[in-house]
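User: Run a structure prediction on this.
Assistant: Running it now.
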Amino acid sequence: MGHREDQRRLLDPYFVSKLRRLDLIARLVVEGFITGLHKSPYHGFSVEFAEHRPYMPGDPIRSVDWRIFAKTDRYFIKEFEEETNLRSYLLFDISSSMAYRSSDKLLTKLEYGVYLAAALAYLMIQQQDAVGLLTFDEQVRRMIPARSVGAHLRVILGELSRIDPTASEVAAGRRTRIGKSLHYLADRMSRRGLVILLSDLMDDPESVLTGLKHFRHRQHEVVVLNILDPAEIQFPFREETVFIDMETREQISTIPWELAREYRERVESWRQAYRRTCAEHSIGYAEIHTDTPYDVALLRYLEKRRRLH
């Protein structure tokens, strides 16, 4: 298997889901991502992540990072040692709608979000950024304050590993109250920082956007990662189907081809509303499908991080 193919596999959601340990998944995803940055138009970000620069004649040998040399056969100098003091929070939607997947070949939105949040936390800690985690559905379930020490990563990954998409409380129909959780954290973040929301945004858009604007009013940078199953956009259903609302458990029997056009039009309007309003308020927005490699979302983080420095 070639080097580029190895890198793609490490960013493939279905491939990494076959690995067992969350810390291993996070490390492999991030390493695959950084390898790609070195060979892509975004290579400038690699310097920011690794906090390294190429070795130049006259640099002290003791500053060479030999781990990087072992991996790349190239000499890099570790240029920045001090903590960046960026404070970041991952806001993770664990409501019942996130447990959806349209195919056994895809992850649920919740599983995808767990792996993505783990990779983001790993990336932040590697950059010596402080990272915290808030999980929520109709209410805040767990809040872990932001810290930047290496041992804190185990705390974040431990909490993420306890999120079970098959758990009875998920299956029972936990509703979403995104706006409420956004306001909760905004009132508790005193220092300017970065907030990353991982959610399918299956809630009242006005409430969600009001909560996001609360962060911008307090001068925080915000990234929205809208995690969706491809079928939620394409609506590929052909046979008469019973759809079940995963939060209310309400059932409705439909003939899909009779409503497919209206469904797609409404979904497109919903997507455009989020894109437009986020752009108007300088909120980073990325629609992430569960078959999408993780580098799309990781780049969004790096773009916002650079704006804060």
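The chain is about 45% helix and 20% strand.
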